[in-house]
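Hi everyone, sorry if this is the wrong subforum. Our group has a chain we'd like a structural model of before ordering constructs, and none of us has done structure prediction before. Sequence below.
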Amino acid sequence: MNLRLIKLTKEYETQVKEMIEEWKADIIANNTNRSPWVIFKNDCNDFIHYLENLETKEETDTWVPDSVVNLMW
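Answer:
Right subforum, don't worry. Here is the predicted structure as tokens:
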């Protein structure tokens, strides 16, 4: 099995939306954790905005830059 880490782009919109809806359903059904919080901080239905605001690009007093990648196989 070949695994790779990828940055999200518009081409993964359908998969990301399905994943988030499934994750939300699991949170409700099983009271599971919402970690990582960044996945849920924006509404994925506005996917371009979601992608543009998924990562912290500049350091602030409370945040450090980060990257979000997905595991694909």
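For your construct planning: Residues 13-30 form the longest helix (18 residues). The helical segments are 13-30, 47-52.
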